[in-house]
Amino acid sequence: MSIDPERRRFLGVLAVTTAAAVSLPFVLRGPRPVVAADAPRPQGGNVTIDEFSPDKKPLGPRTEARVVMTDEQWRAKLDGRSYYVMRHEGTEPPYTGPGWDRHENGIYRCLGCDTALYDSATKFDSGTGWPSFWQPISKRNIVQTDDRSLAVEDRTAVSCARCGSHLGHVFDDGPDPTGLRYCMNAVAMKFVPVPGVHITLS
Q1: Which of 63, 73, 157, 168 is the most buried (most CB within 10 A)?
Q2: Is 183 a catalytic residue?
Q3: Annotated catalytic residue: which of 110, 113, 160, 183?
């Protein structure tokens, strides 16, 4: 499935405009307060996720305690950009996230709880300036919810199944075999290379 260049260009302009509009208030005033309309956060209990070894071998499902921390604890754990994106549904400006165009072999894991999110084998260049994948490493490990925070379109938000941190959004303009584009924020993930792989910093 090919992506229409004109549509991609339009989406890129829209994304840059949206990111600027969302990021500027954060720079000036800090992250927006949590309101009742926000998606609920995990409130304890357990969650079943799929585990993967450092060399990407599937280890099967495992039940883990949800990661629940106070706002102060999240602020202490994450830097300003990651906190804004992951805990306040922000968006990093395109082409700015660490390793957004990385192509080494490895696993992208949640910066908040280390849950495996994406296999580098499913990463592709979407032309948007954000890390993009055509599928998650496991559907168990992410949660998708409706996001109507923007008036221009309904979107599907993607968050970590274990800690509830916002990761990005999924769109239906991706390549084969799924036709999906999981457009993620680089500051919400950490890249863990397959052992023995040399990393080139971008």
Answers
A1: 168
A2: yes
A3: 183
